[in-house]
Amino acid sequence: MTYDPAELLIRYHDAINALDFAAIEAFFVDNATYSSGKIGAVEGKAVILSGFRRYFDEYPDQVARDSLVETVSRNAARAVWHLEATSTITGERLVRDGEETITFDADGRILKVEVTDYATV
Fold first, then answer.
1. Backbone dihedral angles phi then psi of residue 3, each to the nearest 5 degrees
2. Measured between alpha carbons, how far is 2 from 120 in angstroms, rounded to an integer?
3. Are 3 and 50 within 8 A, CB to CB?
4. Which sign does the torsion angle of CA 27, 7, 57, 98 carry?
5. Where are the beta strands (DSSP E) in the chain?
6. Domains, the chain, with CATH or none
7. Calpha distance 113→107 (Å, rounded)
8. 3-state SS of the chain: helix, strand, coil percent to 5?
9. 14 within 8 A of 7, measured Cβ to Cβ
10. Quick one: CA torsion of 33, 58, 63, 92, rounded to 10 degrees?
């Protein structure tokens, strides 16, 4: 199957921004991996989705925008993003800038997400 990795990444981010957990889940293969300096590395669609649900329970008002989305290989894309949200637990504002590279399988489902946060100044 032929697909545009950048377009798939945009659709994935759209699902996240809409908090469409069914769509988010459909993107991942069962043994997908997700790594971030904030959470470390996790494996498995169920674990990844559980993490998404916990995060959005605390930060339901997240607004994230991509400033760049690009295809980096025939099966991977990279996005540079900025997000802001407020914790429902502490009331503190969260502001993050970073990038992620997503690797897809032959069917366009997510195998791996690698998130890198940029240092705050």
1. -150, 165
2. 38
3. no
4. positive
5. 28-36, 40-43, 63-73, 76-86, 93-104, 110-117
6. 5-117 (3.10.450.50)
7. 16
8. 30, 45, 25
9. no
10. -120
Residue 121 exposed, middle or buried by CB count within 10 Å (0-12, 13-18, 19+): exposed
Average pLDDT of the residues of the chain = 95
Looking at the DSSP assignment, which residues form a beta bridge with residue 104? 110
pLDDT tens for residues 73-97? 999 999 999 999 999 999 999 999 9
At residue 87, φ and ψ (nearest 5 deg) are -70, 130
Q: How far apart are CA 83 and CA 100, in angstroms?
A: 13
pLDDT of residue 37: 86
AA identity, residue 85: A
**Secondary structure of residue 5 in the 3-state scheme:** helix
User: What φ, ψ does residue 11 adopt, rounded to 5°?
Assistant: -65, -40
User: Which pLDDT belongs to residue 89?
Assistant: 96
DSSP 108: S
Q: Distance of CA 17 to CAs 72, 73, 105, Å?
A: 23, 25, 23
